């Protein structure tokens, strides 16, 4: 670890805005990050690192499988730019293995093709989430999402068309 956090790189990462048939997005309560008052409750969409030479579209499906126990999804599209965030000072040197100052992310919008029962937070030995729910995309920036709020605000705008399209489709099924 370095004494100069600004010298640490950003970790390459993918994020998944997983939409159900009603156009709501999956959000899980993280097990590893607490709210500012140290209570459980930081909510997050699935995300994770991109392995060396891994295609981001492959990585996002792998991350879904690892974090929520299913990859029953199809990619609808992605945010046009890579988004990045810096960790809060108290997490630098602790989070992300202490090797990164934040993350550079490719965010994907995906349609969930499974059933709620396919979501298994306990699929891995060390679950990332201890609870989950579907929420309207527009509510993401108002939830307790910690330092990711600016990214979620951008995604709420960028992916609004996918949410609306899925809501309209759900009226016919």
CATH fold node name: Nucleoside Triphosphate Pyrophosphohydrolase
- Spans of at least 5 consecutive residues whose pLDDT stays below 50 are none
Integer-rounded radius of gyration: 16 Å
Instruction: Please indicate the count of domains.
Output: 1
From the 3D coordinates, which CATH architecture would you assign? Answer: Alpha-Beta Complex
Q: What number is the mean pLDDT?
A: 90
Oligomeric state of the chains in view: single chain
Largest sheet: 5 strands, mixed
What is the secondary structure topology, with strand pairs?
Blueprint (H helix, E strand, L loop, with lengths): L9 E10 L4 E7 L12 E2 L2 E3 L6 H13 L4 E6 L4 E4 L15 E11 L16 E8 L12 H10 L1 H11 L3
Parallel strand pairs: 1-7
Antiparallel strand pairs: 1-4, 2-3, 2-8, 5-7, 6-7
Structural summary, described in words:
- Accelerates the degradation of transcripts by removing pyrophosphate from the 5'-end of triphosphorylated RNA, leading to a more labile monophosphorylated state that can stimulate subsequent ribonuclease cleavage.
- This is RNA pyrophosphohydrolase.
- Its EC number is 3.6.1.-.
- The chain has 173 residues and is of the alpha+beta class.
- It has one domain: Nucleoside Triphosphate Pyrophosphohydrolase (Alpha-Beta Complex).
- Helix content is 20%, strand content 29%.
- The strands form 2 sheets. Strands 1, 4, 5, 6 and 7 form a 5-stranded mixed beta sheet that branches.
- The longest helix is centred in the middle third of the chain and has 13 residues, at 56-68.
- The chain is globular and about 50 Å long.
- The N and C termini lie far apart (53 Å).
- The model has no long low-confidence stretch (mean pLDDT 90).
